[in-house]
Design brief:
The chain is of the alpha/beta class and 230 residues long. The protein has nine helices and eight strands. It has a single domain, classed as Rossmann fold (3-Layer(aba) Sandwich), CATH 3.40.50. Strand 4 and strand 5 form a beta hairpin. Strands 2-6-1-7-8 form a five-stranded parallel beta sheet, sandwiched between helices. Bound molecules: cytidine-5'-diphosphate. The site of cytidine-5'-diphosphate has 17 residues, from helix 2, helix 4 and helix 8.
């Protein structure tokens, strides 16, 4: 029996609101939300815990032999496990964001995570967010959205989030981090961040989170309704 599953790919730069919007849209549609950034963050964390430089391609590639990353869904929420330990909280630290962005430019890391991501979408209706979902991981996705906002607005959102968590940082530091990661993500040789040709651009600059969720949800529903089932 062929099981027909649907996939909504949401790509975009750091702080565009992908995870909050993707989670809300998945919940509204009864789909599973897969946050692929968490996988790169888990590798970044694993590499840091081993005391390795996340830039060092050879060391990071060798380290993959001793790293396992798994995703589990607990009450609909994604949890990410590194070598069997739930690291869903630890991977959100600012230094892990940068380590994730650095290991993400290494081909062996992207290959390592590729089938894990693909498998999730084989059996489930998914909303999957990341940088290369519509271009590389799920090029046949039913709906592709490229979500963006100005760097300043994205940095402000990320800064507010970090303040709520009690992290010590400044807006300037967060803006510099966002710009550096934008640069890394768009300039790497393998699977750079770019809008897929058939992706719909949603710019959330100056609109509220609720409006952004509505916009992405309505766009996805409309796109899915225009598809034939055979
Ligand atoms: O949430 P935020 O936008 O800060 O980042 P994330 O989605 O958690 O991803 C962390 C890092 O992983 C990004 O800066 C990317 O370098 C990398 N990443 C990637 O290369 N490809 C993906 N599909 C997802 C994330």
């Amino acid at each position: 029996m062929v099981i027909l599953v649907k996939a909504i790919a949401i790509d975009g730069p750091a702080g565009a609101g992908k995870s909050t919007i993707a989670r809300a849209v998945a919940q509204a549609m009864g789909y599973i939300y897969v946050d692929t950034g968490a996988l790169y963050r888990a590798i970044g964390l694993g590499v840091c815990l081993l005391g390795l430089d996340p830039h060092n391609e050879k060391d990071v590639t060798d380290a993959l032999d001793s790293i396992t990353v798994t995703l589990r869904f607990v009450e609909g929420e994604q949890r990410v496990f590194l070598n069997g330990h739930d690291v869903s909280g630890e991977i959100r630290q600012p230094q892990i964001s940068m380590a994730a962005s650095q290991v993400a430019s290494i081909g062996a890391v992207r290959e390592f995570l590729f089938s894990l991501q693909k498998d999730m979408a084989k059996k489930n209706n998914v909303v999957m967010d990341g940088r290369d979902i519509g271009t590389v991981v799920l090029p046949q996705a039913d709906v592709k959205i490229f979500l963006t906002a100005s760097p300043e607005e994205r940095a402000q959102r990320r800064y507010d989030e970090l303040m709520l968590k009690g992290e010590k940082t400044t807006y300037e530091e967060v803006l510099a981090d966002v710009k550096q990661r934008d640069y890394n993500d768009t300039h790497r040789d393998i699977s750079p961040l770019r809008q897929a040709q058939d992706a719909i651009l949603v710019d959330t600059t100056g609109i509220t989170l609720e409006q952004s969720i509505q916009k992405v949800h309505d766009t996805a529903v409309q796109k899915l309704s225009t598809q034939t089932s055979c």
